[in-house]
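User: Predict the full complex structure for these chains.
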Amino acid sequence: MTVEASSTHTAKLLTYPLNAWYVAAWEHEVTAKGLLARTVAGRPLALYRTADGRPVALADACWHRLAPLSQGKLVGKDEVQCPYHGLRYNSAGRCTGMPAQETINPSAVVPSFPIVERYRYLWVWLGEPTLADPAEIPDMHQLASDEWAGDGETIYAPCNYQLVLDNLMDLTHEEFVHSSSIGQEELSEAEFHTTHDGNSVTVTRWMLGIDPPPFWLKNMRDKYPDFEGKVDRWQIIHYYYPSTICLDVGVAKAGTGAPEGDRSQGVNGYVMNTISPERDRSCHYYWAFMRNYRLDSQLITTQLRNGVHGVFSEDEAMLKAQQETIDANPDYEFYSLNIDAGGMWVRRILEIALEAEGRGAASPAHGVAVPKTTATQEP
Amino acid sequence: MADKHVEWQDATVIESVDIATGVTRVVIEPARPVPSRPGEHLDVLVRLDNDRTDERSYSIAGASPDGRRLAISVSLRPDSRGGSDYMRALRAGDRLRITQPLQDFPLRVGAESYVLVAGGIGITAIRGMASSLRRLGADYALHYVGSSRDRMAYLKELEQAHGDRLIAHVTSESGRMSVDALVDAAPSSAELYMCGPIRLMEALKRSWERGGRDVTALRYETFGSSGWFDAEAFRVEVPRLGVTVDVRPSESMLEALERAGVEMMYDCRRGECGLCEVDILGLEGRVDHRDVFYSERQKAPNSKMCCCVSRVVSEDGSEDRQGLVRINVS
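Assistant: Here is the predicted structure of the two-chain assembly.
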């Protein structure tokens, strides 16, 4: 078989915008007791907190000989000491001490990246710092709200981050990948509706008067112990630039008005997903399952976390296998289906962002990690 | 923050215009453009007399958003080491070799307030920072020090762009600026970014340290290209090697020693890293310490010097007796 020309233009390996907020860690992972090494969008970071609790993200490479600062130690109120020759840097990344000399070289700086604590996560901005606006952090408020309870985990996914976004933007796969928990035939039978607006995309699917799959039957019975019968089920997928997808999912007793907005006779979950590319073929996938009923039950929190862990393990296995197959067939292309509409809008938004950074497929600096600048004086 | 490996590339001169007395603005088009950020500079391969080539650093004075056009400003100084003659002779269509933009002077976003100080041609590096801060709506003051208005590049444009935030200190009109007053007026939370002659920067540094301020909040870069005295010819002797060499005003002591066949160790060649230090065994004249490697305490006894930038000058009033330094090298 010879593939000479392709009728499709869907990138198999999408690079990541840098002018974007990515989750670097759960807030509890980063402390003032030690350093955490994590790579986000191709940039190795040394994460820590100052003595007064402020999070810091420094480039994880000493100015001098690029030894990893994350293997050093925290000293003083806000400083890191390089494990190799003892150079010290403050939270702004500026060198405060050097061995064997009385002065400090003016160029001795490691980059200190903007970092913001919000919704139980630490969000980092690796692109042009003058563009870093915390107002653009995606809305994940259910994670930190009194009206929602739940918990989550981190998956280390050995695949391009876009494959995870594809996965979450089309839940038809539940029927096949998650047949024992949330999958059911009605998923691929029900119509869905896609909309997009600026940097967000929404995919909505309702399945009315169906039998609840095992996962949702259990949740209904947590709220209504004697529940039997049909439900109306919804999946509303909210994507926010660059890589956050919140799934508004749930079921209500059939015919009680859920599609019209009255969800009081049902159970509602929010699956909070945010994916931080690590390198081209790996990402950290942070998720949590939040619910709006039986808020004080730690048992339910643990059961749901474990249940979703099981479901997502199935995705993880598929994503890994998919990346391996992609890499094993460099001469084959992606083709798209109608069910990919949500994922294709996500790709469009990311491609526009990459183009604006001069890193799109057609840009001369493609693949070069140089963020867009705002230093735009006419020469 | 040398965050990129240095890569050399071709570039084409688009235009060359005198924009102030003694200042030429050269706009170039790099073969491989990348966006540029405030505080960056280019290294340029310059051709000197006798067909020697050498590298010179020039701050980027402005760039188009895609980096396809970069402007640098070249100033003609009496003690030019030859690089500015080459640069000022460039005409539209000429080719040259440059690096990609290099960053050793990053502007930190998020400080409570900023004081920017430019002396003379140092405005080149500071101008881009000022316009970034204006766009960010930051609290900043821009001090621009010059000998006379006609020598101060970009002055009119800066007045228009920055209004009251620009404070021009013109020596011919109001005499020497008070460095202490400038530092005292800066808010305690301010970060100060400076670029200019070493005399101005040393004075600011001293005033900053005397005020007990956070030394990491004082930001600058050095190209080691200015001194306390004008460059003069002087003689270097290395008794252990039996070498004597005359250093021309247009070359560094390091270059002269290499020319004489002495194997030298160095790296930054701008007075920062200290690798090129030599021991001083004897001295006729004064050492013009142009480096930022030694502390004042270390410079005072004149027992060592960074030969990549520092020089020797004759004692005052003895113009016919040139300086001499006897050294040992590693």
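Chain A touches chain B at residues 59, 63, 90, 92-96, 101-107, 109-112, 114, 128-130, 132, 358, 364-365, 368, 370-379 (CB under 8 Å).
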